[in-house]
Design brief:
Distance between the termini: 34 Å
Largest sheet: 6 strands, antiparallel, barrel
CATH topology of the largest domain: Elongation Factor Tu (Ef-tu), domain 3
Number of helices: 4
Strand order of the largest sheet: 2-9-12-11-10-13
CATH architecture of the largest domain: Beta Barrel
Structural class: alpha+beta
Shape: elongated
Number of domains: 3
Length: 368
């Protein structure tokens, strides 16, 4: 909905007197008007966020009250979740074991190292023996079968050594992989254990305390609502017919529902880029240029955003305009259709069809 604001008071008084009687004649008048977009809204703090639980458990303590000023990293609540602590301790112990298994002193690796040394020694002896057999067979001092058996034994020793070395590398890689896995699990459980302590990410003022000491909370439950008390703004809901006319930098006039006799000057500084499903409207933020002396968050308000000014506009009272933009001329049975611009609850901008010399009267009711 749009409103027309008049700069001159006497024109409003004039039409108020016209509207008091259905027999009053009215001549269109010219005035300077301001076009505004009307919107309702509430007071909101900047950087408002919900302090939420990241784990399940009972609240052992809460170190804040509504209205408290908090600073970043301040401990605000402690949750009793023994599972997180137990998991963290267990994961740390598993990590210690994995570190031992991946080290050079690992019992499994030490055992394979010993087997490798034995296999190397056996291969060395077999190679010496094979060299002897090669000399003996040339002299025909040993049979071909004896030489072949010695050669096979040497090949077997070589393959055994290669298998043990591959086993050592595989076991070492497996131990390193297990170490990485356990370190990740330990880090995760260590982080989870910190969720028992809830800290403020951003400083500000506690506007609403949602839980009490002893309450059981689940992950995602809101414990408190926090915001920046140094910057309070008007959060306005703009309908889809008007949002295209609202721009950043436009002036606004704000009136709190708690102070109907007072208005505050403001300015649009942000228009949110998405449609708000909960209010079925678009959201814009207006900061206060005047000092705000009432700062209770959630206070309902009304705002008029100035989207344009028009000079020397021809106006008639709203109740003289009928359906289909029709008006009744004086001393005439015919009804005239006019072209209109801005229409408010009190007046109508006449774009064409009337002049300042025309005299209009209230529309005659249709005869049944």
């Amino acid at each position: 909905m749009q409103k027309i604001t008049f700069f001159l008071l006497f024109s409003v008084v004039f039409w108020a007197s016209c509207n008091s009687s259905q027999s009053v004649e009215v001549t269109p008048i010219r005035k300077n008007i301001t076009e505004t977009v009307f919107a309702s809204g509430i007071l909101e703090p900047d950087n408002k966020y919900n302090l939420t639980a990241q784990t399940d458990g009972y609240l052992l303590s809460l170190s804040f009250e509504e209205g408290s000023q908090i600073v970043p990293n301040q401990v605000l609540a402690v949750i009793d979740n023994k599972n997180n602590i137990a998991n963290s301790v267990g994961a740390a112990e598993q990590l210690r074991i994995a570190q031992i298994n991946a080290s050079a002193n690992s019992p499994a690796l030490k055992q394979i190292e010993a087997n490798i040394l034995t296999a190397k020694e056996k291969l060395r002896k077999d190679e010496i023996q094979l060299a002897r057999y090669e000399a003996l067979i040339k002299e025909k001092s040993v049979s071909q079968a004896e030489y072949d058996n010695m050669k096979l034994s040497t090949e077997t020793s070589k393959n055994t050594l290669l298998q043990l070395q591959a086993q050592y590398e595989g076991l070492k890689l497996q131990a390193e992989q297990q170490l990485v896995t356990q370190k990740t699990l330990s880090d995760i459980n260590s982080i989870n254990s910190t969720y028992n302590t809830i800290r403020a990410i951003v400083g500000g003022k506690v506007y609403k305390k949602m839980k009490q000491t002893g309450d059981f909370v689940r992950r995602g439950d809101v414990i408190a609502v926090i915001g920046n008390s140094q910057q309070i703004y008007a959060k306005l809901n703009i309908d889809e017919n008007s949002i295209a006319k609202v721009k950043v930098g436009q002036e606004a006039v704000i009136q709190l529902n708690t102070q109907k006799n007072k208005t505050y000057k403001g300015q649009v500084y942000e228009i949110l880029p998405s449609f708000d499903e909960s209010t079925q409207s678009f959201i814009c933020k207006v900061n206060f240029k005047d000092s705000l002396d009432f700062k209770i968050i959630g206070t309902q308000l009304e705002g008029n955003i100035v989207i344009g000014e028009k000079q020397n506009v021809l106006l008639i009272p709203r109740n003289y305009l009928g359906y289909g933009n029709k008006v009744q001329l004086k001393n005439s049975d015919s009804i005239k259709t006019i072209q209109t611009g801005i229409i408010s609850t009190e007046c109508v901008e006449v774009v064409g069809g009337l002049t300042e010399k025309d005299i209009i009267v209230p529309l005659k009711p249709k005869k049944k």
